[in-house]
Design a protein that fits this description.
This is Murein hydrolase activator EnvC family protein. The protein has 4 helices and 12 strands, in the order αααββββββββββββα. The chain is an alpha+beta fold. Strands 1, 4, 5, 6, 7, 8, 9, 10, 11 and 12 form a 10-stranded antiparallel sheet that branches.
C-alpha cells in the first residue's frame, strides 16, 4: 500500500508544481492586459477631450453663424426696402419729368401768346409813329355830333382796356410759368437728392451683405474643419473600442472566463421596452440640426424621455460615454464582428459601464435628446465589422 501511495503523492506534487507557474503566467497576462486597457482608457479620454473641445468650438461657430445669417437676412430685407424706395423715387422722377414736359409746352404756349400780344402792341406803336401821335382828346374833339362822341369814347375805352388786358395777361403768364418752372425744378432737385441718398444706402447695404456672405463662408469653412476633427475623433474612439474589446476577450481567455457571446445569427431583440415609430430611416438625408447632407447610420425610434433602452443581444459594453453628434452613447459588442449602438441617451441615463457583460433585453439606458437631436428618440445602429448596416432586417 505504501508503494502505491508514494507514486500518487509524487504525481500530485509534480502537478502542483506545474500549476503554480501557469497560474502565475495567467495572472501576469491579466495584469498586462489590464495595463493595456488602462493605457487605452487614458488615450480614449484624450481623444474624447479633443472631440469635446471641437464640439464646443463648433457650437460657438454655429451660434455665430446663425446670428450672422439673421443679420444678413435683416440686411437683405433692408436692401429690398431700399429697392422699393428707389422704385417709388423713379416713379416720382418720371412724373416730375412728365410735369416738366407739360410745363415746357405750357411755357412755349404762354411765350407764344406773349409774343403775339407784344406784336400787336408794337404794331400799334409803329402805326402811331408812322401816322403821327394822336391824343385821345383829339379823337374825342373831332366828333361830328354827340352820338359820334359817345361812339369814339366807347372805342377808346375798348382800346385802352384791351391794352391793359394784354399787359396784365402777359405779366400773369410770365409770372405763373416762371413760378411753376422754379417749383418743378426744385422738386426735381429734391427727388434727385433723395435718389442719390437711397442709392448710397443701397450700395452700403450691398457692401454689408457681401461682407456677411464672406463671413458665413469663413464660418462654414471653420465648421467643416471642426466637423472633420469630430469625425476623426469618432473614428479614433471606435478604433480604441475595438482594441478594448479585443483585450477584454484576451483577458477572458487568460482567466478561462466563459464567453458572453452567443449570437450566431437571426433576429435581434427590440432595443426599447415599447414599440416605437421610425422617425428617420437608414438613408441619406439632410441633418435636421446642421442642415447638411449626411448618411444616417441607423434608424431613429421616437419615444418619450426615459423610455427603457434594452440590449439587443448578449454581449459586452465597449463604449459608454459622450460622443459628438450622438450625445450620450453606448456600443455593445456581440462577437463575430457584430456591434449595436444606442445614441441620444438622456443625461445620467447610462446604466452600464465599459467592460460590463449584458444580457439580451437587459435595461442599459434611458431615451433622451442629447447631442444633435431635435426631440426625444433612440438612435439605434447595427454595425458589422464596424460598418453601419440597415438595422431593420435584424429587427424583423
Amino acid at each position: 500500500m505504501k508503494k502505491k501511495i508514494l507514486p500518487l503523492l509524487l504525481s500530485v506534487g509534480i502537478a502542483s508544481t506545474l500549476a503554480i507557474p501557469y497560474a502565475g503566467y495567467a495572472a501576469s497576462a491579466t495584469e498586462k492586459i489590464d495595463q493595456q486597457l488602462s493605457q487605452l482608457k487614458k488615450k480614449k479620454q484624450e481623444v474624447q477631450q479633443k472631440a469635446d473641445d471641437a464640439q464646443n468650438q463648433m457650437s460657438k461657430v454655429q451660434t455665430e453663424k446663425d446670428q450672422t445669417t439673421k443679420d444678413m437676412n435683416m440686411l437683405i430685407a433692408q436692401v429690398n426696402e431700399a429697392s422699393k424706395k428707389l422704385t417709388e423715387l423713379n416713379n416720382q422722377i418720371d412724373k416730375v419729368s412728365d410735369d416738366l414736359e407739360e410745363n415746357g409746352k405750357q411755357l412755349d404756349e404762354a411765350e407764344a401768346r406773349v409774343e403775339t400780344r407784344d406784336q400787336m402792341l408794337k404794331s400799334r406803336l409803329r402805326l402811331m409813329y408812322m401816322n403821327g401821335f394822336v391824343s385821345y382828346m383829339d379823337v374825342l374833339m373831332s366828333a361830328t355830333n354827340f352820338s359820334d362822341f359817345l361812339n369814339r369814347l366807347e372805342a377808346l375805352k375798348s382800346i385802352v382796356n384791351q391794352d391793359k388786358e394784354i399787359l396784365v395777361a402777359n405779366q400773369k403768364d410770365r409770372d405763373t410759368v416762371e413760378q411753376k418752372k422754379k417749383e418743378t425744378e426744385q422738386e426735381l432737385e429734391n427727388v434727385k437728392a433723395l435718389y442719390a441718398e437711397a442709392d448710397k444706402v443701397r450700395m452700403d447695404l450691398q457692401s454689408k451683405e457681401k461682407e456677411k456672405e464672406v463671413k458665413i463662408a469663413s464660418l462654414s469653412k471653420q465648421e467643416k474643419v471642426l466637423e472633420d476633427i469630430s469625425e476623426e475623433s469618432e473614428r479614433e474612439v471606435t478604433q480604441i473600442a475595438r482594441q478594448e474589446a479585443a483585450l477584454q476577450e484576451k483577458k477572458r481567455a487568460a482567466s478561462n472566463a466563459k464567453s458572453p457571446f452567443t449570437y450566431s445569427g437571426g433576429k435581434l431583440g427590440y432595443p426599447l421596452a415599447v414599440q416605437a415609430p421610425i422617425t428617420s430611416d437608414f438613408v441619406n438625408r439632410i441633418n435636421p440640426v446642421t442642415g447638411r447632407p449626411e448618411n444616417h447610420k441607423g434608424i431613429d425610434l421616437g419615444a418619450p424621455k426615459g423610455t427603457e433602452i434594452r440590449a439587443a443581444e448578449n454581449g459586452t459594453v465597449i463604449y459608454a460615454s459622450w460622443m459628438n453628434g450622438y450625445g450620450n452613447y453606448i456600443i455593445l459588442n456581440h462577437g463575430n464582428g457584430l456591434w449595436t449602438a444606442y445614441g441620444h441617451i438622456m443625461n445620467d441615463g447610462i446604466y452600464v459601464k465599459v467592460g460590463d457583460t449584458v444580457k439580451r433585453g437587459q435595461r442599459i439606458a434611458g431615451v433622451g435628446s442629447t447631442g444633435q437631436s431635435t426631440g426625444y428618440h433612440l438612435h439605434f445602429e447595427v454595425r458589422v465589422n464596424e460598418v453601419p448596416v440597415d438595422p431593420k432586417p435584424y429587427l424583423r
